[in-house]
Design goal:
mainly alpha; 5 helices; flat
Amino acid sequence: MITHDHPRRNRDFRPDSGTSHAHSRAGGWIPLLSCAPWRSGTAVAPGVLLAGVHILLAVIWACALIAFAHVLRDRLRRPSARRCLDRITGTVIAAFGIRLALGQ
């Protein structure tokens, strides 16, 4: 577990840190994989452009999620909303688990 010197200041960062790192890793893989079949002397610009577009879309998506959550923050803090979201999340995870178990 990561320890922080100032737990109040850093508590809001921890839940989303895995998501942020996942986006940056995915953006890093795009130029690596798209450049793999290229021979020497080929331009690298298309792979870099593709990575830039991916990063831009990830930032736009994250900003949209933050803005939407900010608008709905009062509703999302209600215990009934939390229970509903927990039920939806549990159902989705169980469905994926059953699908995986059945091999489909």
